[in-house]
Structure formats: C-alpha cells, structure tokens
Structures
1.
Amino acid sequence: MRSKKPVLERQIFTPAEQRAAKAERVKVSEAEPYGWIAESQSSRELYILYASPYTKRLVCTCADFIYRGKDDPDYECKHVTAVLKFIGRWYLQHHYDPLQQVCGNN
Ligand SMILES: [Zn+2]
C-alpha cells in the first residue's frame, strides 16, 4: 500500500516581507536634535535615520540602504520600516484628526 506524503506548502516570503519581519526586532527611539535611532536587536548596531527635506522620505545610514537605495528610490531597509511604524503610532496619538485627514489628496 502506497501512502501519499502530504505536500508541505513551502512558505516563500519576498525580500520585502522578510525585512518587515526583521523590522519587528528593531528598537526605535528619537534622536537629538532630530531624526531617529534604530537599534538592531540581533546585531546590536545603531543607525541614525532622518527625513530627507527633498524627497520627504526616510534616509538610513546602514549599508543595506546606501547600496540598494542607489538603484531603487523606493527601497526601505528594516530600519526605515521600523521607524515608519514608530512615526505612525506617534502621529495617531498626537496629531491625527479624522476631520483633517488629507492623505488622499496628494
Ligand atoms: Zn537601515
């Protein structure tokens, strides 16, 4: 009697999904006088992030961002992902006003 082995569905994550998972292990705090500090829990390395006044996007100082960001302006390293979540929570707590929501207008 032949038994059919169950086919295990392999979970394949895109690089962006893998970075999103890693971003969960990045600790974020505010930097002085501006910007943010992202601390990778696994490697215990600190990176400084700031918002570019030209692109209105976050810029990270890690090697990943510097090299991959050169070819892809939409590239977000795990530190950028983590800081975006940090800013999002802060915004909801301190600034969000449903009557002033204008995100869809730009
Ligand atoms: Zn980074």
2.
Amino acid sequence: MLLQTTAVLFFIASSNAHSWVEQLSVIAPNGTFTGTPGYARGNYLRTAVGFSDTTMTYLIPPNTQANTTVIYPTTKMCKDTQQDQTQTSGSPRLEASAGDAIALRYQENGHVTLPWNQPGKPPNRGTVYVYGTTEPKVGETLLDVHGVWNWDGTGGDGRGVLLSEQSFDDGRCYQINTGNISEARQEKYPHQANQLMGADLWCQQDVQLPNTAPSGKLYTLYWVWDWPTLPDIDPTYPDGKKEVYTTCMDIDVVGKSTSRVQETDSYVEDQSLDSAAIPSEFNDLTNEDAVTVADSSSTASAVVNENTGSASTLKSTTQTAQTTQIIQTTQSTQSTVSANAATVTVTVGAVTAWRTVTKVEIQKHTVTINSCQSTAGGSVD
Ligand SMILES: *[C@@H]1O[C@H](CO)[C@@H](O)[C@H](O)[C@H]1NC(C)=O
Ligand SMILES: *[C@@H]1O[C@H](CO)[C@@H](O)[C@H](O)[C@H]1NC(C)=O
Ligand SMILES: *[C@@H]1O[C@H](CO)[C@@H](O)[C@H](O)[C@H]1NC(C)=O
C-alpha cells in the first residue's frame, strides 16, 4: 500500500519531464500485449532508487550548447548510458521473433494535452521515428541515421532502415490534468490507475520487426522524437530551435518468423487500453502496408538464372501502382526502373516478400532482362 502511494505521487511530480521509451512489448495478433516486457539499454525504472528524469532523458542539442538552431555532426545518437548493448538489473531486453509487432510506449508529459505550454511546437507534437539495424555502432551519430536511413535501407551507409514514422501524439494518450484535451480523452479512453502508468495513459508507437531479422542475434532500435520550435513564434527563440530526444534499445531475436502479417483483421475490439496496440497503427502493420510474403508461383524466379544485367523493361498491369519495396529476395542486386507512371523497384532474383507503400494492387509485373522475360504476379491485399 505504501509503495503504491509513493508511486502515484511520483507520477504527479514528474509532470514536466520529457519523454523516452519506457517499455517495449510484443503484440499478439489480436492486438494484446503478450509475454514479458522489455526495456531500453541502461534503463532506470521510475521505481529505482536514484531515479530522476535526467537518468533517462537525452536532449539534442544539449543544454550546454550555445547555438540551439543547429545539430552538429559529432552529436551522438544515444545517451552516454545507452552507448553499449547492456541492460540494467530488473530491466531485461525484449525477446521477439522476426516479423513480430512491437509496441514502444512513452509518456506524453503534457506535450500532447497541454500544448500551449510550449509555443512554436508542431501541431502533431513532433514526429517520432524508429530506425532499425543489426549493425549498431558505439558512438553512432544522430545525423548518420536520422533523416538518412530510409524505408528500403538504401540511405546513408546502408546499415539500417527506417521502420516507423508517426506523430508523437498517438491520438489517445494523456496525462491527468484539467486541460480540455486531457479531460476529453479521459472520458473517451478510460483507464483505471495501475502501478505501471499511474492514472495516465501512455502513448504508443507500434512497429514491426523486419522478417529478415536474424534469430539468435540482437536487433537495435533507435527511437527519435523530433520536436523543433518553429521560428518567429516564441520570442525567446526568434530563430526557432532544434529539440530532439532519443532512446536506444536492443531486442533479442528468438525463434522463427511467425509470419503474423498474414493474420489480418484479428484485432479484438473493446479490450483493455492498458495492454493493447493502437488499432490504426496496428492495422498499418498487418494490412496493405505490411510485408506480403509471395507464394512461390509468383516470384520472378526465371530471372534468377540469368542474373546478368539490370532490368531493361518492366510492365505493370496496374496503372495506379506507385512504389513497391522488395524487401526480401534470394539475390541482392536491385535496380529501379520506370514503367508507365509508376516507379517500381525490380530485384534481379526471386522475390519472396514485398510491401506496397501505397494501397494498390500489384496484379502483374513483367520484367525483361537481356531479352529474357519473366513475370511476377500476385495481389497485395
Ligand atoms: C489475445 O491473445 C493473447 C495470446 O493468445 C491472449 O492471452 C489474450 O487474452 C487475447 N486477448 C483478448 C482480448 O482476447
Ligand atoms: C547558429 O548556427 C547556424 C548554422 O550554422 C548559423 O546560421 C547561425 O548564425 C548561428 N547562430 C548564432 C547565434 O551564432
Ligand atoms: C481545447 O481548447 C482549445 C482552445 O480553446 C480548442 O482549440 C480545442 O479545440 C479544445 N480541444 C478539445 C479536445 O476540446
């Protein structure tokens, strides 16, 4: 009982804090968190002796930097306590399988529900990005990754990918306060105070571990909250300022790919908000936007044998196709060609998985390489 009271007081006292990823959870196909939660590198639980916000927040540029309109190329991605792939006692790594959906949860601390406290901030409360890599570096810099690594892994030095990008405000989360936003959300998204979140409802970013994440290894996630102040609004910052927070974390990849992406529409409605994915974010992972595993009859396998040059022509029977990312192949040679109005990435090799960035049907691709023609068909739905 005493512990509970202390914890609740603590949540109130921390209302000016900034944010970090407090907990990671695997999401079952029905949208419910499952298994043992995981934590960031070097995590400091809120209940730990000596905890304060500064044990977990990592502000870029740092308070000590005079010119806050610039982020220097030497600025590190990870807080000094999160440089190494090590966990603290009581805060284990998340265990997950390739292809699993994972929820990253963070507190909004008033940045969502009391937006007038910080003039000049973006209406979406900033943007949160998750980057993934199997090859993290001690001393990784923010600018080598953020805004550089892209969805198909061709950005920068190519060591990693962008896995997720969304608004900091997930549309539900709130801290308890008497502002109109918090009060409206308390009504719409009721939550019984519990030991973990107190009375607040944490924010969430749902991401999918790549199907290609190798089992038995660590997979690293970099969470980046980009929350700039725009110029000419706050008189204190006439030129605006940069403000970024990060959390660095690793996942123990175990077992085999569960191919959970094939299970769509299994989200259970009206389940407790305390341990459930955000439906819109989760559906993005499971529907058209998700990885589609091709069946063997729809791969461009005839091309593999040739593998002697880049695709010279490509025809798509679907005019509306815009971008197709081929993310899993038996060969790595890729080339991008334009066909009709569509740009499609063609992989010279057997395509075993792809995803569409836009919601379209890919009905049939015909690829011609050095006069050898092959057809990759199948629908994405
Ligand atoms: C979802 O599935 C998990 C794991 O199978 C189960 O523990 C949980 O109770 C289910 N959730 C709901 C709301 O049915
Ligand atoms: C801050 O750095 C930016 C970019 O280098 C520069 O344009 C600006 O003049 C600097 N501001 C001050 C106050 O030094
Ligand atoms: C909260 O109040 C502000 C300012 O009056 C208003 O613009 C906004 O629409 C309100 N939001 C909600 C959720 O009531």
